[in-house]
Design goal:
six-stranded mixed sheet; 15% strand; alpha/beta; 2-enoyl-CoA Hydratase, Chain A, domain 1; 49% helix
Length: 262
């Protein structure tokens, strides 16, 4: 009998859904899981797919508690294999950030270590009120391997980030919301509905328009402000000529909802 899939990929209208499906292992991340996420993004972004937003969610009690340590133990016997494990995980999370689609995460229970790194690579985060996030690497002599040391300080500031990394403590949903780690906190029973409703709303927007916004925010973040403003001017000068802008302006003039085709 073959093993069950590590993730499930489906769609709800124009929303592509990636569902972590290893609840028995708290949805830990392996090479297989990362490969499946990358393949799903390829599918969602393919011309003619009709997908306009992506949602990452998880089965079971917890969103994701980190890397698959059984796999890590096996790979440590080969420096080349462990380097591939780290670099491939990095490439997939960078792929989420670079995707032309808005990527939303719905997180329940725990997001720890690699799970928090996966979450931080997404664009908008919904969390259940029972959600907790932390990084336990220091507790076991480890260090973040999939961008946690870089994304966390950029989101919450260096002092808060180092406190979380040094102490290995968990913070709750209200604190994560106050620190900007998540965007919305909802009751556990409403997490699936609220995150999907948000994705459906995004899917009604102009796909190239949202892609341009994401590109400007992501790629402009580490540029000096004057350079970022030039980046915005150059990109918007091109975007204002696309068909969705024509439709949007026509809808505004006739006081109707726009229907974007791109």
């Amino acid at each position: 009998m073959s093993a069950p899939p590590s993730i499930l990929v489906n769609r709800d209208g124009a929303v592509g859904v990636i569902e972590l499906a290893r609840p028995d292992k708290f949805n830990c991340l392996s090479l297989e899981v990362h490969g499946a996420i990358a393949a799903a993004l390829d599918e969602f972004e393919a011309p003619g797919s009709g997908i306009r937003a992506a949602l990452i969610r998880a089965q079971g009690k917890h969103f994701c508690t980190g890397a698959d340590l059984d796999e890590v133990k096996k790979l440590r016997s080969s420096p080349a294999d462990i380097e591939h494990f780290i670099r491939y995980g990095h490439s997939v999370l960078q792929r989420l950030e670079a995707s032309e689609l808005p990527v939303v995460a719905a997180c329940q229970g725990l997001a720890l270590a690699g799970g928090s790194e996966l979450m931080m690579a997404c664009d908008v985060i919904f969390a259940s009120s029972d959600f907790r996030i932390g990084d336990q690497h220091a507790q076991y002599g480890l260090v973040p391997g999939w961008g946690g040391s870089q994304r966390l300080p950029r989101i919450v500031g260096v002092r808060r980030a180092l406190d979380l990394l040094y102490s290995a403590r968990w913070i709750d949903a209200p604190t994560a919301l106050a620190w900007g780690l998540v965007n919305y906190v909802v009751e556990p029973g409403k997490l699936a509905e609220a995150s999907m409703a948000y994705c459906v709303q995004l899917a009604s927007r102009s796909r190239p328009g949202l892609a341009a916004m994401k590109r400007l925010a992501r790629q402009g973040l580490d540029r000096p402000l004057p350079e970022g403003l030039v980046f915005e001017q150059d990109l918007i000068s091109r975007e204002l000529l696309n068909d969705d802008v024509t439709e949007g302006l026509a809808a505004f003039e006739t006081r109707r909802p726009p229907v974007f085709r791109s």
